[in-house]
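Let's practice the habit of predicting before peeking. Look at the sequence and jot down your guess about where helices and strands might fall. Then scroll down.
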Amino acid sequence: MGIFEKIKNGLSKTRKNITGLFDSFTGANDEFFDELEETLITADLGVDLAVSTVDQLRANVKAGGIRGGEDIREELTHILTEKLRSQDSGLHLTTKPSIILMIGVNGVGKTTTIGKLAARFTSEGKKVLLCAGDTFRAAAGEQLNIWAQRSGAEIVRHEEGSDPGAVVFDGIAAAKARKADVIICDTAGRLHNKTNLMNELSKINRIIERELPGADRENLLVLDATTGQNGLIQARQFSEAAGVTGLVLTKLDGTAKGGIAFAVAGELGIPIKLIGVGEQMDDLLDFDPENYVRALLA
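Done guessing? Here is the structure:
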């Protein structure tokens, strides 16, 4: 199965609802636009973004040149693509070392994403060091060690229950000594309503700022694409604690509504940088707005 098909299948729930409107289209009347707006809201775009999108589509239809259901599909594709394309979706890791801080709640695929990223960078000839900063969850360090072995990366880890900040400090020191190109730091699967854990994340940020001033850095929040609007809450809270620079949307090979991508990017201004579409090493892709929207509306 190709990458586009994986995304398309994962977004099948939303696509069936939206394309059903296009297929039964008889005229761009108020009822059609009301139904489209409701469908976009239930797809997790969020109320404000769904309303503004439909208002823009309505205005473009009234301006002329858009008649049939296929014309409207193409126009909606263009509008949604532009909403995602306006943001910088690239990874910026040019210094040596550069550092990636991976954050997100348990179960979103954070450790797997770290392994896939490490495999990508090592295949590009870069020296990668993994930092096992999740010292709270049992076996988290061991799981990361397995990914280090699979990807050819090195790893720094402490005993379970150790101070995460100390692990990150030692990881940065090791990366400098070993002349690593990229450091990827795991963190605990923090619940967004746990103030003490958010404070721990802020502490790690301060250590990185002190030990690697001027280094290129990405704070990547991993979100389960099936989470829905709860993902927006997570993104807002984590962004306040860690200054999120980008999102990784995982589990897009499952049945996802898909609109959370627009909600987070639109409401919080956080770009989507990577998407996960499976469990294989090469199933982590750079985000392409047009391909994503076409998979949603195809």
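How did you do? Residues 135 and 160 are 5 Å apart (CA to CA).
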